[in-house]
């Protein structure tokens, strides 16, 4: 299946590929951090432990509407994930790789 | 073509879908902010104007390895793009929607 997908992509005109990218993104589930944590069956306490902070700090973090990219990356890593920063343009998408990994 | 892609996705088992997501991400171009700006044929000066800051501040921003999500979003918007924050897990991807839009 994976191969078929790659072949499909390879055979696409650039415009179709951009369209597919948009479509693909639209299919992604969207959720806030606290829901993502619950989906991973993790408590604020266990995440606090992994991040070496206290539970109140995790709670506060989950209510923020802005934060440093490094803070968000640490939070997502503590859940076992990886953060990706994508810039979407009408003609396609680019992954931004400026930030410390 | 777009419809075919959607149909392909709809018919996928969850594991194949996750695999396709990973593959898809691997196909994304990766670049730092200053290269993305150049690819959009924008100068630091024009971006500075759009952001209501000076050229030196844009130059400094492009050399940072960490910044606020809102700062990055403003930079990408000034280029005509949209920022997306994705968390990638072994079993799939989620778009994080905590941050002010």
TrEMBL record, chains A, B:
<feature type="domain" description="HTH cro/C1-type">
    <location>
        <begin position="33"/>
        <end position="86"/>
    </location>
</feature>
<dbReference type="GO" id="GO:0003677">
    <property type="term" value="F:DNA binding"/>
</dbReference>
<dbReference type="InterPro" id="IPR001387">
    <property type="entry name" value="Cro/C1-type_HTH"/>
</dbReference>
<dbReference type="Pfam" id="PF13744">
    <property type="entry name" value="HTH_37"/>
</dbReference>
<protein>
    <submittedName>
        <fullName>Transcriptional regulator</fullName>
    </submittedName>
</protein>
<dbReference type="InterPro" id="IPR039554">
    <property type="entry name" value="HigA2-like_HTH"/>
</dbReference>
<dbReference type="InterPro" id="IPR010982">
    <property type="entry name" value="Lambda_DNA-bd_dom_sf"/>
</dbReference>
